[in-house]
Design a protein that fits this description.
By secondary structure, this protein is mainly α. The protein contains 5 helices and no strands.
Length: about 170
């Protein structure tokens, strides 16, 4: 075996370990975002309470699905997914959720910021996982994590924007 072949084999053997670390980081952030949606859903109030409940519940369920897919991918690569809250706390984003009940706009702003942080990290991680030996991780990050979070942040920021000139009720202002 040549040095080039042994270098390729060593690099290929290292891919699952790097992918597991990437996936666990995204899993922790996804679990954190999922919990933000759960808390926002429980504390929804005001004139648009029903609509917010629907939005928060839908996004919570989608984040739950992503967390499950990320966990399954980690396990498929031979790793151990962070499933305990204390493990996720070490990796999760520090959202600093206040102990007081927030206004709907504050909740939406916090969710938009959490989505933005997750997307900022997920996009380069997706490119990093773009190895011929681990296209499944690359595909999962782009199809599930990036696309779903990009769609969700669009909905959340749409509610944060001031009303349009046509009078369409697309915000909470």
């Amino acid at each position: 075996m040549t040095d080039l072949e042994s270098d390729r084999q060593a690099a290929a053997a290292d891919i699952p370990h790097r992918s597991i670390a990437v996936l666990n980081s995204l899993l922790a952030q996804t679990a954190d975002l999922r919990e933000l949606y759960r808390k926002a859903n429980l504390q929804a109030s005001g004139a648009s309470c029903y609509e917010l409940h629907l939005l928060f519940d839908k996004h919570h369920n989608e984040q739950e699905r992503i967390a499950t897919l990320l966990s399954e991918r980690v396990q498929a690569l031979g790793g151990v997914a962070f499933v305990l809250v204390r493990n996720m706390d070490e990796e999760a984003l520090q959202t600093g959720v206040p102990s007081v009940i927030e206004t709907p706009l504050d909740k939406l702003q916090r969710l938009a910021e959490a989505h933005e942080r997750l997307l900022v990290e997920a996009q380069p991680l997706g490119r990093e996982a773009e190895s011929p030996n681990d296209l499944g991780t690359h595909d999962m990050i782009l199809r599930e994590v990036v696309r779903t979070n990009a769609r969700q942040i669009w909905f959340v920021t749409r509610l944060l924007s001031p009303p349009s000139d046509d009078g369409a009720a697309t915000s909470l202002y």
